[in-house]
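As the next step, I selected for study a record pairing a protein sequence with its backbone structure tokens, which the following lines show:
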Amino acid sequence: MLTQREIISTLEMLRNEHLDVRTVTLGVNLLDCAGGGLPQVQRRVAERLLGLAGNLVPVCERIGQKYGIPVVNKRIAVSPLAVVGAALAPAELVELARTLDAVAREVHVDFIGGFTALVEKGLARGDRALIEAIPEALTVTERVCASVNVASTRAGINMDAVLSMGRTVKRAAELTAERDGVACTKLCVFANIPEDIPFMAGAYLGIGEADAVINVGVSGPGVVRKAIDRALQADPAMDLGHLSELIKKTSYRVTRVGELIGREVAENLGIRFGVVDLSLAPTPNVGDSVGEIFQSLGLRAIGVPGTTAALALLNDAVKKGGAFASSRVGGLSGAFIPVSEDVNISAAAAAGHLCLEKLEAITSVCSVGLDMVAIPGDTSAETIAAIIADEMAIGVTNNKTTAARLIPVPGKQAGEHAVFGGLMGQSTIIPVNNGAGENAFIRRGGLIPAPIHSLRN
């Protein structure tokens, strides 16, 4: 039970510190919609989604108003379309993406994820078709998000898939060149992807999940920063051990709020509750920044020496607080570093404090990886694949989730500005070492074997 002081503190979070439920994501199993031709699959998919998601947005808004806690985003995640549409051709999968987009508009959700393939050990026919369809599918739709898992600690890194995704990212950017390659903002390449992510662009419903499930994503970077600022104002000499404890307690309260909302949404919809993902996911709004937390801890900006250690402290404290608050913590849970989505991180990149190499270093301790990183448009597909491969190696070796969401901005160079709009934000384009060069290592393909510590059961 929360004490009176903790209740007052939680109310303060609501009034002044940007506490919200960042997303309620309805996961829908579409595996039994497979089979037959495209029209049959489209009909079954649309009927299933409309039947389950029709009341999602009204219920979220009603419960948010009841508690005074806004549910910012309402989303859907579906079974991997590479499995559901395994018999379909790439052009047909593009049409299936249009169906998902139309349903998302009709039920008023922000995004729908699950244009997904799981290829860490090899590429099947449906996987190849889906990956080929991704650039056009993300170009002709507004709300569809795609993800591809190309590596895992148990399987290793599928380098054939990595090279294919380098080319896919490049093509998606070219098809939306007039919008700074915005299609790439909806595409994430993963190692060790969880089955229950509520956050986009990686959200999908895992093969082992139920028919339908409600997963909640809670975010509170502004809450954590204000808690640190208050504590240091009272005790400027507070050490990092005590600050870690403070972050842990703050994360506990935020997680409890998220689970309360998620369980009530699930009960109202008659759908089982899945997990609460406590991730410090920023927005482009001032005061809702992960980067500002690093400044509150005493760093000049995110990216300067000390950043990796500070992020390790932050991520660990967030996870511990969430785990203590709920037995249903899942998804990614930790701290995101999406460059263009965080006004403070974007400013650090523009000032030169944050480079691609430093971003890669800190992904060893953050929750995701290279997230929303704008790079020069002339970066070659092989170089993009090589950046992805490096990120996958960090995830596989450290037995953690990592991902790459890279945007090669057509026609623009390092130091110029890219604008993606809305939640996706804007960013200075970061230089890439030998970005336009060839890479014979990546072209070799094959499978980088799983590390020795994968041999356990």
